[in-house]
Specification:
By secondary structure, the chain is α+β, with helices and mostly antiparallel strands. 39% of the residues lie in helices and 18% in strands.
């Protein structure tokens, strides 16, 4: 899990995340760790999908890996606020490889009993349902 253990540039934004959300993210990283030999991964280090895909593509070239997966800080923030689920994106250096990347991620998560959904469209990210997380309590303004 060396790659996933690197310091996260958005860790300051996580200071107010709920413990159960932080634990879910750590568990998710551990569940995906077996894919590290073939996948470049960016987990919460970028601000949005466009930046994630751009950085991931560059990292894939440097590491000579064919596949990539990502989620960004906005995905984590939404998970913290709503507690319903989160999206994982995937890319490949070749067109046909994109479906293989998604199927490999799905298989790994299903094997570990995550509830996942994907519609088969390479332009749609994989959704992970988090039934056990509840929404963050609403702030009361007096």
């Amino acid at each position: 899990m060396a790659q996933l253990a690197e310091m996260n540039t958005f860790s300051v934004e996580r200071w107010n995340f709920r413990e159960e959300v932080l634990q879910f993210l750590e568990d998710l990283k551990a569940a995906l760790a077996p894919l590290e030999d073939n996948f470049e991964m960016i987990t919460g280090d970028m601000c949005c999908g466009s930046c994630s895909v751009h950085e991931l593509s560059e990292n894939m070239i440097r590491s000579n890996k064919d596949y990539g997966l990502f989620w960004h800080i906005n995905d984590e923030t939404t998970l913290n606020e709503l507690g319903e689920g989160m999206w994982i994106g995937f890319v490949s250096r070749t067109g046909p490889g994109t479906v293989r990347a998604a199927k490999a991620i799905m298989a790994e998560l299903l094997m570990k009993n995550y509830k996942v959904a994907w519609d088969g469209d390479i332009d749609t990210r994989i959704y992970i349902k988090t039934d056990h997380l509840i929404p963050a309590p609403a702030l009361r303004v007096s």
